[in-house]
Specification:
The protein is an alpha+beta fold and 482 residues long. The longest helix is centred in the middle third of the chain and has 18 residues. It is built from eight helices and 28 strands. The strands form seven sheets. Strands 15-14-11-25-26-27-28 form a seven-stranded mixed beta sheet, with no helix packed on it. The structure holds fe (ii) ion (FE2). The site of fe (ii) ion has 6 residues, from loops.
Length: 482
Amino acid sequence: MKESPMFSYPVGTLATLRASAWIGSLLGLLLGLNGCAGLSASTSLSSPDAGIHSAFTVQTKDGNASARVITSADRCPEISIDGQTQAMQLRAAPGTMPLRSGAQKDTKAAVFPLRSCEAPLPRGTTSAKVGGVSLPLAPAVAQRILIIADTGCRLKASEQAFQLCNDAKDWPFAEVVKSAAALKPDLVIHIGDMHYRESPCPATLAGCAGSPWGYGMDAWTADFFQPAQPLLKIAPWVFVRGNHESCARAGQGWYRFFAVQPWSAARSCNDPANDDEADFPDPYGVPLNADTQLIVFDSSRTGTKDLRPGDTAYGKFLSALQQVDQLSGKMSHNFFLSHHPVLAFAPASQPGKIYNGNPGLQSVMRTLHPGRLFGDEIDVAMHGHVHLFEALNFSSQHPTSFVLGNSGSQNEGALPEVLPAGAQPSPGAMVASFLTRSAYGFALLTAKKSDWHMTEYTVDGKPIIECDLVKSTSNCRRVGVE
Ligand SMILES: [Fe+2]
């Protein structure tokens, strides 16, 4: 495949950028990122294709997809879809977005000097090219599905948590991507929390020196686009939204780049008055084959306490979960994807204590399905948020559940290999088997006749756990030592 011009900025575009004072101050940051190609004086001036920063495919609902291009050119590029050339549409214009409070004391307005462009790729599309480079398309039957979550480099002053973003051992997302891309997946799922660089790196810490921070393009480039390129090039992505991408945090970027819904003023995260709409979009289905689909659920604004009728989030989640029930009735097998775990555990700082699944989601799910929490058609639940691997199989009727949040962001502790006696992630959820690992890694889901198989890999691509999935059960075992 032709080498794409990612991260190069055409001279003509640079001149335009220089004419704009607010972009000028940001340009140094964008061009100064570690590992970026930076300005190429030889880049063609004649075509908007030359300004392409990233080009990728977002898998949307019902087998459709959306081509996405982020460009420094002053207009969106053309795209050739099945041989027919058309202009891509503007999704979000360049600009400095209104300041959101963020999750940290240090905050600044998010600057996006680049425009986001899009074009629909209807189901059945066989080729899509931008600037002569082919965009990846999902096959009608997806058999190899790569899963990552919680990938960004944590810079969080409120917890004095600063990952060494310049050290591939301490922040291994780029290594994870390299190993994962070698497996040649048909589809990539990111189960949320891509953006973690919320605070400036302390001056005394060389390991993250020079890192951009905040919710603008520079931090998004360093945390996601640059390391993710090898996987963005070879497969379409299903993006699941995490709490780091809620409107109050990095939501402005979420809607510019990844959301399946059209960008609009109400869905921009620019005005807190619209957050109740932008933070609770409808769930949707992504078919993997004729009888199995992913159901993508946005849990980005759930909290750590039970929700009650009358709470805004309660009503929003109830409506969304009713839609999940409708969606899951359309297929024989359904994999539920939400960033926050429902039937799983999280380590607590107090010795011997563990947390159960997300109370906000559980409290609403219990209204619709008091025992199982999920409808009967949900076979498997997959999540991120907790920075480790977990596989839970239940002797009760609950769907087997996985936590896959160990793909790069800072480890936050381990779970015991043997759970405390009587541990249940929700009352009545009887854990028949439990397997966990806290080291970094990623997972690959592969079709196996009418069932599925999951392999958990180490950062360098060594299989470490194998799981057979049959309907709503799983059987996992360690296959290697680390
Ligand atoms: Fe999270």
